[in-house]
Structures
1.
Amino acid sequence: MSAIKPQPLDKQLQYKVFVHNLNRIYFAKTYLDKKMPNLIDIASFKGLKLGMGEFWEDVKKQIARMEVIYKTIGELPSDKNCNPLKAIIKDEFCLDQKHELAILNDMDLIMYMQMLEHINIACYGLLKVIAKQLNYDHIEQLLKECFDECVDNDELFVLIAKEYVQ
């Protein structure tokens, strides 16, 4: 079976795809920003609370970078069609259901944070590819910074989990 290569997208369609996905991650991040105090309060392990605080600072930096991107391309953020990512954040991995053991709650938080970062890595990766196609060099750099923070945060939560269980 041979794979059929799709036709290249014209610049206008690439731009629409770019803005659509930028909106999705922007509103997911702004929604998450509002939920972080509650998520940090759920954590019982001090190292996890500190890691989540670092994560939250990165969320704020990423929102600020995306606002620069919107300004650069002359767009305003639109919350239209952003429900899939917001739904994942809103679900909170059922974190409102407390376990008898604090470690179970904390491990659920770690998995939730990592799941979010894996989604972010995928989203920023896609946006970087499209930004390159659109010759948005400055924007591509901002997205790379966001991407790198997500990778670093994923690694941070792995280290926190290792520290917790040792």
2.
Amino acid sequence: MSESVTVLELSGILDGIRGNELRREVSAIVANGSDILLIDMKEVKFIDSSGLGALVSAMQIVRNANGKLFVCSISDQVRMLFELTKMDRIFQTFTDQDEFNRQVLATQ
């Protein structure tokens, strides 16, 4: 049985408003039967605390559906935020989609 992978590409600022949209999108993706969600953040310029909370909520939504969530292409600013808030211990991050494909999908 192959697992269903969905890539969600975010852009701009991940704040409270965009965070709410993210939660809805992730809920819909999980409801449609996706097992693995990759959030590509190469176009995200800034994340505030609400955006960080939305990512944690997204992780919980995916885990509650027995799925897996990964993050790729984070900027230096976002990486620093992840490290300061210890989110780098919660989210498995990849340099880009190619690295994700090599490390996760190739082992499926």
3.
Amino acid sequence: MEIVFTDAALKRLEKKVQGKKGYLKLKHDTEGCGCVVSGVAALWLVDQTEDNDTKIETNGPDLYMEYNKAVFFDEKMTIDVTAGNHFALKSPAEMLNPSMKYYDKTKKNTGV
């Protein structure tokens, strides 16, 4: 799997992370969705990776994903920023999430 960050996405991510320590994860977030196949892509900053996380190649920061959730994503994807200043996850085949959220899930933070 390969993910490319656009320059705009890297700048927005830098503002969001604000130099905090942690690991960036691409999550297939199912909270409140009712079913695992109804999940949405999200970016999470976490304190540590988990045993089932795998590293994804990017042109930017290290990015991790639960290996068993890769089925919900495409082999090549781009993280961009939309006109509304949201992250967008897309592939050559489809728009996976035009309004992808970023969550700081580190122990010191609980905000969006």
